[in-house]
Amino acid sequence: MELDALEGPPAREPPPIRRLEESVVNRIAAGEVIQRPFSAVKELVENSIDAGSTSISVVIKDGGLKLIHVSDNGHGIRHEDLPILCERHTTSKLSSYEDLQTISSLGFRGEALASMTFVAHVTVTTITEGQTHGYRVSYKEGVMEQEPRPCAAVKGTQIMVENLFYNVAARRKSFKNLSDEYARILDVIGRYAIHKINVSFSCKKHGDSRADIHTTGVGSRTDAIRSVYGPAVARELVEVTASDNEPSHSVFKMEGFISSANYSAKKTTMVLFINDRLVECTALKRAIEVVYSAILPKASKPFIYMSILLPPEHVDVNVHPTKREVSLLNQESVVDNIQNAVEAKLMQSNTTRTYYVQKTLPGASQVINSEEEESPSQKLGTKSQKVPVHKMVRTDSSNPAGRIHAFLQKKPVGGQESQGDLAVMRCAVRQRRNPKETADLTSIQQLVNAIDCNTHSGLLDIIKQCTYVGMADDILALLQYKTQLYLINVVKLSRELMYQQAVRRFAHFNAIQLSNPAPVFELLMIALDEEEQAGLWQESDGPKDEIAKLNMQLLEKKAELLAEYFGIRIDKQGNLHSLPLVLDQYTPDMDRLPRFVWTLANDVDWDEEKECFESLAASVGDFYALHPPLLPNPSGEGLKFYQISKEKYQENPANETNIDQELLAEAETGWAQREWTIQHVLFPSMKLFLKPPNHMANDGTFVQVACLEKLFKIFERC
Question: What contacts 314, CB < 8 A, 6 or more positions away?
Answer without folding.
Answer: 251, 252, 328, 329, 330
